[in-house]
Write a structure and sequence with these properties.
The complex is a heterotrimer.
Chain A (H helix, E strand, L loop, with lengths): L1 H19 L3 H21 L3 H26 L11 H23 L17 H10 L2 H22 L8
Helix pairs in contact in A: 1-2, 2-3
Chain B lengths: L1 H37 L15 H11 L10 H17 L7 E6 L2 E5 L7 H22 L3 H32 L4 H7 L11 H14 L11 H4 L9 H26 L8 H36 L7 H29 L1
Antiparallel strand pairs in B: 1-2
Helix pairs in contact in B: 1-9, 1-10, 2-9, 3-4, 3-9, 4-5, 5-7, 5-11, 7-9, 7-11, 9-10
Chain C lengths: L17 H4 L2 H15 L24 E2 L14 H5 L5 E7 L12 E9 L8 H5 L5 E2 L15 E2 L1 H4 L7
Antiparallel strand pairs in C: 1-4, 2-3, 3-5
Classes of the chains: A mainly alpha, B mainly alpha, C alpha+beta.
């Protein structure tokens, strides 16, 4: 349990650093660390497959691309766009909404009985695969279609415009 | 007894770690020596008999060199880069089964640090993490050549990870497990996976070359275009770590290839051996076979390096995205048909 | 137009077929070539232990010769210094004393004879200018050193060792 609290503390700590870091590249690096703590959370929940997939997909692929773009953009103080007052207003409203939600959820806070897994091997590849391909087959396939459409969209965006004469 | 088990594990980890380091060290020597042989030269031959102590001399030199951190570099990240590179290179060896379990009396000692049931994915994760060492180091150097090298490394690794993963998926369809130990045990004797997945192996080895940044895909450190690549600003042992990480990566990826496709510690006639030389010697012969395969792959890495010129960057991307990924998907389809109809 | 010479070669580039585009046969070919070299004898001459033979007209370090009786041939005429384009040679002449006949052939000899090896260009003009056949550039490669002063070679390094009788 203490491991959980320690890791949870680290998650929150690093996610705060993501926001407070001045340099966007540092921000991304803190985000990677945050994801790493998530991986540890998954392992603590005995969900090995999810942990490794989170590790590979989020830390290994998506964040590399994030970092890649950040490095190429070379963001710094000089290139920072001026903050319009409307943007500031939107920020204040969004922040207020978040605060209201947080307060609301804290009011509803009560200690629940600890969840006990019926099957401790639920997170292993074999069981996960069986569940995904029987009970949740339809959502699974629909999400794959969603990914496919995203991929097609990306290819279309990346393709050069056909010439006017052609 | 619990303590003894932990002790044995600890010894195993230390031994594997040391072996990786020594192999990486002597890979530098082997690389120079082999390069010489391929070019009708002699190679390093001054330090010790036949130059045997050259790696030690090189290591000493690396330690003695002045440590330079550029003033404009991002201090902490500049150190994190090489540390991360060598760390990720080293932890990959944890899930590789080096041999069958040795039985001494009633005690069974497995020659594998840990057998997690997502072994392949773990290796994959470690490989994908490896690129951070290069990226962070390249960015923190605050040098355009380093940055370009880092960005090349990142895009190259991501591109080739996809086809590598797809080629592994075809392998998993055949084996039906993610655990490296089970995969090895399935290849008992001569039932090696290369016989069932020849195309997958070719895709995998090409991707392995790209993932370890070895020639002909060593674009991130392409001297002719990028001065030194991502480690332009590095000196002393931090540079040593980057160079070392490359060789450890090569060792680990050779071990992975041997395990996944070439039967790991299995060899024809191992049952006869096990029956005749006893339960201690037979696994050790298996370990020797495993290492022979690994060294053969390392030799192949070097052989290719001194044969094929470096790819151009667009050729690299074309090969990755337009050739290897379709091929890997084709391989998956073929494997599926094969499983269904045969 | 008629081609001026018949050396022009018309190249036709056929599109590569599938096997050629897969690179693999060509890579295999390249690998066999490097493998052949792997087993070839190396051509290196391991220098300090092994030396390549010099050509006949090689010009190395100078040596001041002795005649068949072991006397120094040089008579300090200064023609070598005069002919030297790099002005590398200096010498001081001295008169032969009675009793030194077995050391020097002529009545005059070089008491000091110095060649600055940093200036010398090994052209061999001193060799040609010498009327007494006393200087030849028939030595080895001049070794390296750390200090400039150590490159000024005196008689101790230049004169041939005495004949053993």
């Amino acid at each position: 349990m203490s491991t959980f609290y320690f890791i949870a503390f680290l998650s929150i700590f690093f996610s705060l650093l993501v926001i407070f870091a001045k340099n966007p590249v540092h921000s991304v690096l803190y985000l990677i660390l945050t994801f790493f703590t998530f991986t540890i959370h998954y392992i603590l929940l005995n969900a090995q497959f999810l942990a490794v997939v989170n590790f590979i997909v989020y830390m290994g692929a998506i964040m590399v691309l994030f970092l890649f773009v950040m490095m190429l953009l070379n963001l710094n103080k000089e290139t920072e766009p001026g903050k319009h007052y409307l943007a500031k207003l939107a920020g204040v409203i969004a922040g207020g909404c978040l605060l209201v939600t947080l307060v609301g959820s804290l009011k509803a806070y009560k200690v629940s009985a600890p969840v006990v897994l019926q099957d401790p091997g639920l997170g292993l590849v074999k069981n996960l695969g069986k569940v995904l391909f029987s009970e949740f087959l339809l959502p699974f396939e629909i999400s794959s279609v969603l990914l496919l459409s995203a991929m097609v969209g990306a290819v279309l965006l990346a393709k050069k415009e056909p010439k006017a004469t052609a | 007894m619990e303590l003894l088990d932990i002790g044995i594990k600890f010894i195993l980890i230390v031994v594997i770690f040391l072996i990786s380091l020594v192999v990486a060290m002597y890979s530098t020597y082997a690389e120079r020596k082999l390069a010489a042989f391929f070019q009708d030269r002699v190679g390093p031959n001054r330090a010790g008999p036949g130059g045997m102590f050259q790696p030690l001399a090189d290591g000493m030199k690396m330690f003695m060199k002045e440590e330079i951190i550029p003033t404009q570099a991002s201090g902490l990240l500049f150190i994190v880069g090489p540390s991360l590179a060598i760390m990720t290179a080293c932890i990959g060896s944890a899930v590789i089964p080096w041999g069958q379990a040795i039985t001494i009396g009633s005690r069974v000692i497995p020659l594998q640090v840990t057998d997690i049931n997502v072994g392949i994915l773990y290796i994959f994760g470690v490989v994908s993490l490896g690129v951070y060492g290069i990226m962070i180091g390249g960015w923190a150097s605050n040098n355009k050549y380093s940055l370009l090298g880092a960005i090349r490394a990142a895009s190259q690794n991501i591109s080739y990870e996809i086809s590598m993963g797809l080629s592994i998926i075809a392998l998993l369809m055949v084996t039906g497990t993610l655990s490296l130990k089970e995969i090895t045990e399935q290849q008992h004797g001569w039932h090696w996976n290369i016989l069932r997945q020849p195309l997958g192996f070719i895709i995998f080895i090409v991707c392995a070359f790209a993932e370890t940044n070895r020639s002909p895909f060593d674009l991130p450190e392409c001297e002719t275009e990028l001065v030194g690549g991502y480690h332009t600003e590095y000196s002393s042992m931090k540079l040593g770590f980057y160079l070392f990480a490359e060789y450890i990566n090569m060792f680990i990826s050779s071990a992975v290839m041997a395990t996944l496709y070439w039967g790991g510690y299995n060899y024809p006639g191992m049952d006869w051996m096990a029956a005749h030389v006893g339960p201690i010697i037979a696994p050790l012969i298996g370990v020797a076979v495993m290492f022979a395969k690994v060294f053969a792959f390392i030799f192949f890495f070097m052989w290719v390096r001194w044969t094929i010129p470096r790819f151009r960057y667009d050729q690299l991307m074309n090969l990755g995205w337009k050739t290897l990924i379709p091929l890997a998907i084709l391989n998956i389809v073929l494997t599926g048909l094969f499983i269904t109809f045969l | 137009m008629e081609p001026l010479s018949n050396k022009r070669k018309v190249l036709d580039f056929k599109p590569l077929n599938l096997l050629e585009r897969s690179y693999l046969p060509e890579i295999a070919k390249g690998l066999t070539i490097t493998m052949k070299h792997f087993f070839k004898k190396d051509v290196t001459i391991r220098y300090p232990e092994q030396k390549r033979e010099f050509s006949e007209n090689f010009r190395g370090q100078h040596s001041l010769k002795r005649d068949e009786d072991g006397k120094e041939r040089c008579t300090a005429c200064g023609l070598c210094a005069l002919s030297c384009p790099a002005e590398a040679i200096t010498m001081t002449a001295a008169e032969r004393q009675p009793g030194e006949e077995n050391l020097y052939r002529e009545e005059k000899y070089a008491a000091v004879y110095e060649i600055n090896m940093l200036r010398c260009i090994f052209c061999g003009l001193c060799e040609e200018a010498c009327p007494k056949e006393a200087i030849y550039l028939d030595g080895d490669i001049v070794p390296t050193d750390f200090l400039r002063k150590d490159f000024i070679y005196g008689k101790d390094k230049l004169v041939e060792p005495p004949l053993n009788k």
